[in-house]
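Researcher: Re-running this chain for the archive, since the previous output was lost when a drive failed. Same request as before.
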Amino acid sequence: TAALRFYGNAAHVQADDDPLGALDSGDIRVAPGFSGQLLARFAPDSAARSDVQVYRTLLSVLPEGVAAGDYTTSAEDKPALAVT
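Model: Regenerated structure tokens:
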């Protein structure tokens, strides 16, 4: 939230059972997600397995208006952001 506030965006943290659903409905504008889990949701039949393949494939299947944060490290279990 600090980064969003630094750039002039109002921000608060809230728990949600379906953050992508809340993102889709417009209730929220930023949602966390793991790249592998997001890829499984948007492209369940994807054959991507390596960290680079998963990230590149994820970028190609995200719905219009949704983006993933920069990918700069090898595959790790750490959050990525989906932003509309």
